[in-house]
Amino acid sequence: MESSNGNMPVGRRYVSAEQIEDVVRQLKDVVSARAVLDPIGRIAELHALVNPRRAPKQVARDIESGLKAHLDVDLDYRKISIAQIQNRSVFAGSAERRRLRFSDVSLTVSGTKAEACVHLTLDDKTQTGLAAGHASTHNQLRLIASATLRAVEDSGTEDGSMVIEDVSGHISLAGRQAVVVLVSALATGKGEELLTGSALVRQDIWKAVVNATLDAVNRRLARELIDED
Questions:
Q1: Contact predicate 199/211, CB 8 Å
Q2: d(Cα 97, Cα 200) in Å, to the nearest integer?
Q3: Are both 207 and 161 inside the same structural domain?
Q4: Pairing of β 113-122 and β 125-134
Q5: Which residue, 42, 57, 86, sits at the end of a domain?
């Protein structure tokens, strides 16, 4: 049942393409996934890249069941497109090498100014990013997220086309504190893309900000690797 203005169906919660893709990627033999939503938030197309160990029909059934179980999303199997790769081990190895991981984070405050320093690892090499600015509590988190992007650029996987739009460190999920980061990315011929990342605060909030930023960025890098291959 749709609302009178033709937008979101009554009683239906919005599920983003990123949430759908995250569920599908966790399914057996799925390497990557991309969801395309229609104007009212329903799945118009779902593309999955899988290894050849199982028949595409079996994977499609898993996708239908997984989305229903995790997100209560109904999907017509005819909207699922399955592509198989011939050598998953080579592809997975390339994707793993491109994945940036947390190493260390520090923040120095001097009067009204603060500087964040973030270290990431890629192929056992350390990448460093710095960001300086106002020392307000909220801006400290933004500086850490910005320093994370600078470390990404230091790795050579990005060219300065991404900026931090916002950071929230006060998200509560089932009684646990979480961080959410919004990144704006520009690509030639593609315009602006908004990327979101999240992470639970397990040890300290600074590390969670770095991991939330990487959650958004690594997803973009993985998609670009698929496009290149």
A1: yes
A2: 24
A3: yes
A4: antiparallel
A5: 86
Local structure of residue 82 (DSSP, 8 states): E
Joined tokens for residue 47: 């593309």
Are 59 and 48 spatial neighbours (Cβ–Cβ below 8 Å)? yes
Q: And the tokens for 224?
A: 């670009």
Query: Measured between alpha carbons, how far is 27 from 203 in angstroms, rounded to an integer?
Result: 29
CB 67 within 8 A of CB 24: yes
Widest Cα–Cα separation across the chain: 62
Question: Domain check: are 113 and 53 in the same one?
Answer: no
Distance from C-alpha of 169 to C-alpha of 176, rounded to nearest angstrom: 11
Question: CA 120, CA 172: separation in Å to the nearest integer?
Answer: 27
Which among 42, 59, 86 is the end of a domain? Answer: 86
Q: Is 162 helix (H, G, I), strand (E, B) or coil?
A: strand
Distance in angstroms (rounded) separating the CA atoms of residues 151 and 158 = 10
- Give, for all 229 residues of the chain, the pLDDT tens digit: 444 444 444 445 678 888 898 899 888 888 888 889 888 888 989 998 887 777 888 888 899 999 988 888 888 888 898 887 754 443 344 444 457 788 999 999 999 999 999 999 877 788 899 999 999 988 999 999 999 999 988 776 555 678 999 999 988 888 889 999 999 987 666 678 888 889 999 889 999 999 999 988 876 665 554 343 3
pTM check: above 0.85: no
Half-sphere exposure in the Cβ direction for 219 (13 Å, CA)? 21
